[in-house]
Amino acid sequence: MRTIFYISDGTALTAEAFGRAMLSMFPSQVEHKTLAFIDSITKAEQAAKKINAAYEESGERPVIFHTFVSQDLKNVITATKGADFDFLDYFIEPLSAELNMEAKPITHRTHSIQENGVRDSYDSRIEAVNYSLANDDGSNISDYDQADIILLGVSRTGKTPTSLYLALHYGIKAANYPLTEDDDMENLQLPKPLKLHRHKIFGLTLEAQRLHEIRSKRRDGSRYASMQQCRFELQEVEKMYRREAIPFLDSTRFSVEEIAAKILAETNLERHHY
Amino acid sequence: MRTIFYISDGTALTAEAFGRAMLSMFPSQVEHKTLAFIDSITKAEQAAKKINAAYEESGERPVIFHTFVSQDLKNVITATKGADFDFLDYFIEPLSAELNMEAKPITHRTHSIQENGVRDSYDSRIEAVNYSLANDDGSNISDYDQADIILLGVSRTGKTPTSLYLALHYGIKAANYPLTEDDDMENLQLPKPLKLHRHKIFGLTLEAQRLHEIRSKRRDGSRYASMQQCRFELQEVEKMYRREAIPFLDSTRFSVEEIAAKILAETNLERHHY
């Protein structure tokens, strides 16, 4: 099997994103290897050995996605037997012309703590994570004044991972509130603590079959996990979303990245991080 | 100020990563705008209007980073007055030649739930998030058998955001365990529940000044936040890391992405997600 290398003198997150986007265009089965913080000639030479070894083992030329700032380190990698792709190199000149500005590459700037030169932006992202944790699962409803968004849904519809992703990735203070059997599902109303914050609420829902599968992993054979109960809860909660004009999303076919991006696209919430 | 647009018929996460990496090479002040899920001609035309309006308002040509799969939608965007950069387009031919395979672009594959065609990989990532939440802050020590890694450190050294990032981004089950004053700092030993799992432990530490600032935001003027206490705790915990041969990292100058990538680079933990 062909090996794909993601290599950088920084985190290699950009090389991974670049390579992953490229590979998604091809229906190929490959093995992935990330070599991050390759920030000395010695480390670059070790990386080069790994690349050449992968070629010898599989007989297929490794593919290398890299984003080096240091030209000397890059030269060690491009001298290997792998096929290397360097998107920074290709686009830097046209972008420099467009911005009318010389490039001043600094290692480790993309994912550093000084986002756009501002430490505050990073701190506010960590603050959002702490907020979302403290406001997970309906705790701390007194803090909803500070929420950027409040995710609503029945148990196991993806509220928690979505809140954490919104906080970690975008610096958004995302609370989440669960609808439970105590909420009188047969006559479901918007819970009182949420009424004042209606404009911040976003609903999540799922297909009944998927919810049944997820809940069955938790409590197999329970009423809670039964197809009938899942179908009933989802039907009632969607009715309420419509009645209360709460925007909502069926997350069955979406990853947490997609759910978060869709919520941002629908709500025009401001990203605190790029 | 110049506006940078990140546009895609999917999440636009790749366009953001691509553009952000390119812009990090230039010391420029810009405004960022993401237009995600531009998946119809109507939406593409609305996006085109926004791009042209940004040009008219600022007098500076907007820069567009885009990753469209649909050629028709892309044409609407490239016909605007913005300067557009399309890295997929440029690299697709050489990669196709290298892989000896035709590209079969499918919208929304990069960040979809079918990571590399495998739903299980996505589910295990969500499972890792649930694990890390349940094992935050020393709770649930009975589950440490399942941990991929256990982060250790005194209060407020970044254990929680790092665990969550490892889980969300890489599908790694990351528990975290806090060292507190109850642990008898003057004679600090590796806590008993951790002794069996010593090989999974990774320590976090900070500079005393930074820890003092962070703790002061929580409890200003307390003994807990005092420079003296912060210095003492960090000194004792670092002594213990060295004595017990626990790998550790001073996270003062690093973002959560960098900390996570450094931990992976040092421990050779397997990523469950690319």
TrEMBL record, chains A, B:
Name of protein: Putative phosphoenolpyruvate synthase regulatory protein
Cross-referenced HAMAP family: PSRP
Binding site residues for ADP: G153, V154, S155, R156, T157, G158, K159, T160
EC number: 2.7.11.33, 2.7.4.28
A GO term for molecular function: ATP binding
Entry keywords, A to Z: Kinase, Nucleotide-binding, Pyruvate, Serine/threonine-protein kinase, Transferase
PANTHER family found in the cross-reference section: PYRUVATE, PHOSPHATE DIKINASE REGULATORY PROTEIN 1, CHLOROPLASTIC (PTHR31756)
EC main group: transferase
Family (UniProt): Belongs to the pyruvate, phosphate/water dikinase regulatory protein family. PSRP subfamily.
NCBIfam families: PRK05339.1
Purpose of the protein: Bifunctional serine/threonine kinase and phosphorylase involved in the regulation of the phosphoenolpyruvate synthase (PEPS) by catalyzing its phosphorylation/dephosphorylation.
Catalytic reaction equation(s): [pyruvate, water dikinase] + ADP = [pyruvate, water dikinase]-phosphate + AMP + H(+); [pyruvate, water dikinase]-phosphate + phosphate + H(+) = [pyruvate, water dikinase] + diphosphate
Top-rank lineage group of the source organism: Bacteria
